[in-house]
Amino acid sequence: MALSSRAHAFSVESLVGKSPKRKGDHTEKEKIMNEASGLLCEKKTDRSAAATESGEWRKKRKSDTGMCKAVCSDSEKDVQVELQGLDLWKRFHEIGTEMIITKAGRRMFPSVRVKVKDLDPFKQYYIAMDIIPVDSKRYRYVYHSSQWMVAGNTDHSCITPRLYIHPDSPCSGETWMRQVISFDRVKLTNNEMDDKGHIILQSMHKYKPRVHVIVHSAKLDLAQIHSLPDEGVKTFIFKETEFTTVTAYQNQQITKLKIDRNPFAKGFRDPGRNRGVLDGILETYPWRSPLSLDLKHFGLEAQGNLGTSSPLSCGTPPSISGLPSSPCSFGLPCSNTSLHSLTIPLSYKLYSPSLGGSHPFSPADHDRLQESGSVGVQVLADFPFLESFSIPQLRDKKKGVDCKGPCIQELPGPTQHLYLRWMHEAGSAGLPASQLRQDSCSLLPHYSLCNYDLSMASRLSSMTRHFKLAEAMPLTPREGQLCHKLWNSPTYHLL
Amino acid sequence: MALSSRAHAFSVESLVGKSPKRKGDHTEKEKIMNEASGLLCEKKTDRSAAATESGEWRKKRKSDTGMCKAVCSDSEKDVQVELQGLDLWKRFHEIGTEMIITKAGRRMFPSVRVKVKDLDPFKQYYIAMDIIPVDSKRYRYVYHSSQWMVAGNTDHSCITPRLYIHPDSPCSGETWMRQVISFDRVKLTNNEMDDKGHIILQSMHKYKPRVHVIVHSAKLDLAQIHSLPDEGVKTFIFKETEFTTVTAYQNQQITKLKIDRNPFAKGFRDPGRNRGVLDGILETYPWRSPLSLDLKHFGLEAQGNLGTSSPLSCGTPPSISGLPSSPCSFGLPCSNTSLHSLTIPLSYKLYSPSLGGSHPFSPADHDRLQESGSVGVQVLADFPFLESFSIPQLRDKKKGVDCKGPCIQELPGPTQHLYLRWMHEAGSAGLPASQLRQDSCSLLPHYSLCNYDLSMASRLSSMTRHFKLAEAMPLTPREGQLCHKLWNSPTYHLL
DNA sequence: AACTTGACACCTAGGTGTGAACCT
DNA sequence: AGGTTCACACCTAGGTGTCAAGTT
């Protein structure tokens, strides 16, 4: 994925390593907190919004259901609040959760979702959420150590956090208890003048959300509650929901996890990440096989193939974790029904990210590969100079207009080569070195002339943005931008 | 537009007439009601949901702002409720509003939107909506007379209508009065077992929505209100919001108005409807001119023109309300930038809908035309037998797969002619008979070979579905389906 | 023959991360 | 050089009328 320039700078080691953890003194302490679910229940006793986390509290854990319970001891009754989606929150928390804040307001992901128990079924309650500072520090992300460091002090004391009343409020205890109470519509903003009711936060600070259960009284009007009432409030804090505010993601692992789990970021998802590295591509994209490159031929066929689906032989779909037995069949399944739109060349090379070189896979790499025990995939894309290419499915109108020539003329000559290294997920799809040796002869570069349809092409474009460019060292932001520009320039984008 | 088979059968007369009104005894009475804004305010005195429209009420009108006010006289204070979007409601009401109901639930369009005035700013209110039967009759739409007729009796008495509480409830009078209160999330269903809280109605019946302003009392729980409380309720009815429930639109004019006004139906919209009848097409679709048809040539060029934009001369764009001065230039503006995808033939004929014949325009028609004072446009589309037509923008995969031959083979011979009559909106773009006579010689059929791009093609397909098939008598459902099938068969659809 | 249903193309509306450009 | 903003491609989610096929 084309992670942001910042995120690109995240060190390779921590990405490829088996189970990357934040380094430093905090790690052990946080782990303990996670295991303890980090629950806090406080009874509201004063008007201070940034209430201290004091007060009696007990905790209970249901790790198998992915929930955690907070029981708030009270003169009346024990109210329990369970955080939903605890597993996901913990995955983020282990890395160091970041939340984007924007001027217009950005939703949280994950969002705070709770189940409430042991309310009085017949009483009316408001349920609300706010977000308070964890400390008075300003933070800075240090790329080379992949850590958040204190960068200064901030005085939060004069700011009263905005209270987000759950839209179903007020509601009977019975009704609240029947449903999962989701705060997914909450939006975070860094705009101090915000008039849309979003929660206002400062970037590069640590915060923690709180959930409040408020007993309804006749005086309360939903439209008039802007701060917590003096009494009848129970507050719950879940340590796992702590986060650092950012305007752009700092830690690449956070970006990755967000993309993987947030449905709205599906467009940035690597289609094959949950299977063998190549499986996703192989199964998703229709290819012709065996791969062979004839750019002149391609140039001639580019238009001629429009709308046709000539019967070509299809290769055997290989998988990276179970390589094909036929020595030279690096082909992919062929879906003729979608072979009607566009002809572009594309080919793969196997590549070891730990080798550090930008060269095609060579026999000498085998030995080093055995040491590293993992392997990536290098993609070679060839871009012929196609002046009058027909692009019927042109969604990006603006870019499409600009596309007639100049953008492609950045590249000299009729054919361009772009080498990309695909960083596979650590451990998820590593190719065993032994297997690689066995089949490595079949993995040497082949060139392909392949037809595939434009919707596939657009997905491929998205997919390739998840590739890591092939450099020995982590990319600098500038490098990342440059490579992305080449790959994602208007014309290429249309591939 | 390809109105539903039912809607197709709507009689020509009522479509073309200057200001079509429903015929029958009701017309005069309804007109009075419209002018009186049809307001009703009733004070709830019993639990009967289907309350009678009795009670004291006054009315006030602000026609220039498109709103209408209801003032409910009361022991406490006058509460006023204004229907928003009154103009739109009235346009529908004049035709005879229809609302689709489905098993899954369908939104209303227009939706009920009101402004409330003179509430007690400090009191809490619920605002709710329900929909009650207008009478105990079942209705049937009679196509040849374009009228709704009583078709039987229904006993509604045992059914208590579902109450839809506005999601902002309860809320202070102050807050309610600050905003437009919209019931656009209300959904109507014909599923008697509905468990999603939608309003359950019976198809082919007449209903009227009611808006209730309910004073909050401590006893009321938002989740527990399923019927109107005994007291503290003021009810408002707007005559213009009456509608007949259908599962498919019956009156083509309703379909047309829904498509024109509902943003979600934009895909079915005729791009030129707010200008001269032809202007939209002429300005929107790139054409080559002068129109001339050479099907053999077309067949040969169909693929050859892909991706090219050969420089052809473009005709003068005429408008139906101001015909072009050049005698034979029924051409259209040419947008070469989009002439790269597909070549299809299409031509126009002027046609008088009141003549009733399916023949091309003849001199003898002129006299009759003068009497009718209005004119439609007839479209002649020619479909050559194109076996291997290139269809890059194939979104409808299912149809695309079926498209190879059989569907087009329904038509005998290499070329098919389909006559469509385009019913222009009454009064919006009528061609003066005098002007027609003057220019009628230029309106005799011409044939055209024209290139235009696929996105345009898809819109044209949508547009042509709005045409009315040229038959002397209103079409039967079967006829409508047949003609639509020809025009919209898988291959044609891609035009 | 009248009416209903369900899959569908085509929209609106809005939530994502990206990277260029900008600010400080 | 760190941090922020904005237009954007690419998604999810769901509201339209259409039509073929079904039911009554």
From TrEMBL, chains A, B:
SMART domains: TBOX
Alphabetical keyword list: DNA-binding, Nucleus, Transcription, Transcription regulation
Signal peptide residue numbers: none
GO biological process, one term: positive regulation of DNA-templated transcription
Name of a matching Pfam family: T-box
Cross-referenced Gene3D superfamilies: Transcription factor, T-box
Main location per the UniProt record: nucleus
Domain of life of the organism encoding this protein: Eukaryota
Disordered, as annotated region: 1-35
One term of GO molecular function: DNA-binding transcription factor activity, RNA polymerase II-specific
Subcellular location: Nucleus
PROSITE patterns, A to Z: TBOX_1, TBOX_2, TBOX_3
Transmembrane segments: none
GO cellular component, one term: nucleus
Domain T-box per the UniProt entry, residue ranges: 83-270
Protein's recorded name: T-box transcription factor 22
Native source species: Erpetoichthys calabaricus (Rope fish)
